[in-house]
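Reviewer 2 asked us to include a model.

Predict the structure of this chain.
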Amino acid sequence: KVSGKLLLEKWPLVSVHSVLKELAGWELLSGTIDVESPVAFDSAHGLLFDAKTTVSKASVKSPSPTAITLSQITGRADIRPTEINVPGEILFSLGDTVWKASGVIPFDNRPLAVRTTTDQLFLSSVFTEILKLKDIKVDGKGTATLVVSGPMSNPVIQGAANLGPSHVGKGSLDSLAVNAGYEKGNVRLYKAVGKLYDGDFEANGFIPLTGEKNAPVSLRAVLKNIEAQKLAADFGIDGMEGRGDVEVHYSGTRQTPILSL
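Predicted model (structure tokens):
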């Protein structure tokens, strides 16, 4: 048996890029780590360690097709041969949104158990970084919570968000509450409920993130008792007055969408 102590300061994380990619398909792009750990090795158990680490300004990229980049990862974590444990909080950025995360990331067959929160969610980050819809003008802020489970190579995500006044394209929202999930390349909108144009809004459906141009899309939105004049003003339409109900269906594929009323 051999034992000792390991000390590393500002060690570049890109040096273990191939290890993380082989374990879970994720790419380490940048950042440094400080490590202090007892180390032992014997023929029966192999290499044993219990490292106390501090990560600074790391960036990682998830496997395709999502290819989401998490940047500015900073905080403390315990690293063992079978897991990364974050008992406190680690900060990371997704686009302009800063998140706090805690939980366990296993290297064996156990599922992920990670919870992330933000008290300043930028809606634009969701569209550009997750949905990959970079050509739509979006603004709005809110709060959100995500719970991540399943294998690291194919995680399952359940989330909830609440937004204040927001704009998506030419449309405007007074408020929005969303429950959604991600699994096997699809974002599923279980329910979105909000207020817009002095009326009510409700939506559900799914959007694929597989990158396939012919992947089907299905979204349904119901607008009830909306103020027609306010809707017309946003979209440059004249002659609309009073209140009304509208049901909108977005279907087809990402390459050839079909919009119907």
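Residues 17-24 form the longest helix (8 residues). Residues 61 and 69 are 4 Å apart (CA to CA). We have added this to the supplementary material.
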